[in-house]
Amino acid sequence: MILAMSTSMLASLRPKGTTVMQQFAKHTLPTAPQTKGAADAICKEGKAKNLTSSAFIQKYHLPGSSSVQSAIKGLLEKNFVTSNLGVYEIYDKFFAIWLLGQR
Questions:
Q1: Per the domain annotation, does 8 fall within a domain?
Q2: Helices 93-102 and 20-28 meet at what angle, rounded to 10?
Q3: Beta-bridge mates of residue 89
Q4: Which alpha helices (DSSP H) does the chain contain, by range?
Q5: Terminus of the chain with fewer CB atoms < 10 Å: N or C?
Q6: 3: pLDDT confidence band, cut at 50, 70 and 90?
Q7: pLDDT band, very low/low/confident/very high, at 1 (cuts 50, 70, 90)
Q8: Using one digit for the tens of pLDDT, what is the confidence trace for 21-49?
Q9: DSSP 84
Q10: DSSP assignment of 16-39, as one string?
Q11: Per the domain annotation, does 43 fall within a domain?
């Protein structure tokens, strides 16, 4: 009973026609275009390397390398992205799948 009430109360707080994930992304993902672009590019690559290279930046229509570097720093700090030996990935695979479907 309590769970049903809580779920319905939460649903009433969400704007009509939006999913929980859309609201989550709206309130947790950084809104700067370069950050969204960097997250999208990493999702599309799966395992991304050389994020500040001119080839990567041109392929995904990203701003300059310093903007990409700053965006990646923010994504790493918020644990949306992991880095291991220069390879970047979205930390949560299900979130990456959802994010790909939103763009």
A1: no
A2: 100
A3: 82
A4: 2-13, 20-28, 33-45, 54-59, 65-77, 93-102
A5: N
A6: very low
A7: very low
A8: 565 566 565 557 778 889 999 999 999 99
A9: E
A10: TT--HHHHHHHHHS---HHHHHHH
A11: yes
Is-contact 31 24, C-beta < 8 A? no
| 29 vs 7: CA distance, rounded Å | 23
pLDDT higher at 13 or 36: 36
- DSSP state letter for 92: -
Range of the domain at 24: 16-102
* pTM given for the model: 0.69
Is there a domain that residue 3 lies in? no
Contact assessment for residue 63 and residue 34, using Cβ atoms and an 8 Å cutoff: yes
Phi, psi (5° rounding) for residue 89?
-140, 155
With beta carbons less than 8 A apart as the criterion, state whether 80 and 43 touch.
Answer: no
| 8 Å CB contact between 72 and 90 | no
Nearest Cα neighbor of 78 from 92, 61, 64 is 92
